[in-house]
Structure formats: C-alpha cells, structure tokens
Write the structure tokens for this entry.
Amino acid sequence: MDASVYVDRTEGERTTLGEGLDRYLRQVVPTKTSPDQEKGRVLRWKQHPLAYRMMASLRGADFARYRDERAPPAKQKTRFGSYYS
C-alpha cells in the first residue's frame, strides 16, 4: 500500500495568483538586486487573465501557454536569408 501525503489546498483555493504576486512584491522584490526590473515583470503578470485565477486551479499548461503568448514569433529560416539581410 502506498503512503500518501495530505496537502492542504485551502489557502491556494482562496488566493488568486494576483494576490500572491502582491505578497511577492511586498516581501521579496525589495530584497532583489534589481527590484525595479523585477517589479516590472510582476506588474506585467498582474495584467494577464491568469492573475485572476485561484492558485490551486493553475496548472503547468497554463504557464506554458503564457510563455508561448509572450514569445516573439519564430523567424522563418531560409537557405539564402543571410545573404539578403
């Protein structure tokens, strides 16, 4: 029989990602070597619809989708592209 570990999810079910980011801004960002740059990243996150979701409902696929949305479009590789650019 496998031993399972109980994980209390109540805080994650009551807290949105945006609220977690606010806490991060208050407690962690001031300790960073570049707090202004980190603050900018967090504020961008807070503008995304994911910030309104409960933390317990977020999955890795949600963050992968966010990453893909923010990635620049891939450049098409051509055989002679370097000669004409």
